[in-house]
Specification:
The protein has a three-stranded antiparallel β-sheet, covered by helices on one side. Strands 6-7-8 form a three-stranded antiparallel β-sheet, covered by helices on one side. A two-stranded antiparallel sheet has the order 1-4. The protein has three domains: 83 residues, no CATH class; 105 residues, Tetrahydropterin Synthase, Chain A, CATH 3.30.479.30; 73 residues, no CATH class. The C terminus is likely disordered. Helix 1 runs antiparallel to helix 2 and helix 4 packs across helix 6. A hairpin with a 2-residue loop joins strand 2 and strand 3. The chain contains eleven helices and ten strands. It is elongated and about 165 Å long. It is 53% helix and 22% strand. With 315 residues, it is α+β, with helices and mostly antiparallel strands.
């Protein structure tokens, strides 16, 4: 952050000296005094420094570290002290795209981002020449090492876990640097085109398998329900006829549909009762010699079946 305070202070002191001394070409003493005043004003103005809220100022006196100042206004000794400002906010560093081979011998390309901040400015500046470049190099090396120790499925399934492993490796390497790494995240994973096609076919085959399983389960449940419905209808003599009428009603009243019942339901019922009548006739014939049994069979004779007509309905 640019600090305008030294410039403003210098201008104010220079103006005050000019109005106080009134230098003129005829009065060399006043001119010399004004020049001395300007030098003093420049010295005082250059001794005032300002650090922003997110900055720390490292003061070096004659090349030796002296103190950490800021944030806010602080003073230094001009010509003897040197100040270096360090940003303590969280910074993002890009991890360049890296080519690596996974544990199952699949080549992949990955890139990521590092979130870091300076917690100890003195250690970060004094112990490391360029801490941003150093931590980026560590992250690249850790990324290749971690990718080589896991399979492709593990990378695709959990990127966050991969980032955490890289973060742990980087933090162990930068211990004592005065830096903190809140997180490292994997941004993009690039796979070979032939591998993408193979994975797409595998996914399509998996979806088709699930579809076939779902369809077969539906067919089985439908068959079980139809069997249960058929058993219920067999126990009720009029259920089949009611179902037939319901089906005819669902066809609608449009004249474009014509439904012809070649064999009515009642005729089918009568046909099904023929074997029972035949058994009864045989029993009567065998018991003709016994009047008592004949009278019993006569009382159990089935009722005659009414004649049915063929139905034709236009719906």
């Amino acid at each position: 952050m640019k600090n305008p305070l030294p410039t403003v202070l210098f201008l104010v002191l220079a103006a005050a000296g000019y109005f106080a001394l009134r230098p003129t070409p005829e009065n060399l003493t006043s001119v010399a005094g004004f020049l001395g005043w300007l030098a003093a004003a420049g010295f005082i103005a250059s001794s005032i420094k300002v650090a922003a809220q997110w900055e720390k100022a490292l003061m070096f006196r004659l090349g030796k570290f002296k103190d950490v100042k800021g944030p806010g206004v602080f003073t230094i000794l001009p010509f003897f002290d040197n100040v270096e400002l360090v940003d303590t906010r969280i910074r993002t560093l890009e991890i360049p795209r890296q080519e690596a081979i996974t544990k199952d011998n699949v080549p992949v390309s990955l890139d990521g981002v590092i979130f870091m901040r300076v917690t100890e400015p003195a250690q970060a500046v004094i112990r490391v020449q360029n801490y941003t470049h150093a931590i980026r190099q560590y992250a690249q090396t850790a990324l290749r090492d971690v990718v080589g120790s896991v399979t492709l499925d593990e990378i695709l399934a959990d990127r966050e876990a991969l980032g955490r492993r890289i973060e742990e490796m980087v933090e162990s390497e930068i211990d004592g640097w005065g830096l903190e790494v809140p997180a490292i995240r994997i941004q993009d994973i690039v796979l070979p085109e032939d591998l993408k096609r193979v994975m797409a076919r595998q996914a399509a085959a998996e979806r088709e398998k699930r579809a076939n399983i779902t369809k077969s389960e539906g067919d089985r449940e439908a068959a079980e329900n139809l069997a249960a419905a058929a058993g219920t209808m067999a126990l009720s003599p009029g259920a089949l006829q009611l179902r037939t009428l319901q089906t005819l009603d669902s066809l609608g009243t449009s004249s474009a549909n014509t439904v012809v019942l070649a064999v009515p339901v009642d005729v089918m019922t009568a046909i099904q009762s023929i074997p029972k009548l035949a058994d009864a006739a045989v029993a009567v014939k065998s018991a003709a010699s016994d009047p008592k049994l004949l009278s019993n069979f006569g009382s159990a004779r089935p009722e005659p079946v009414e004649e049915q007509k063929t139905l034709t309905q236009s719906t």
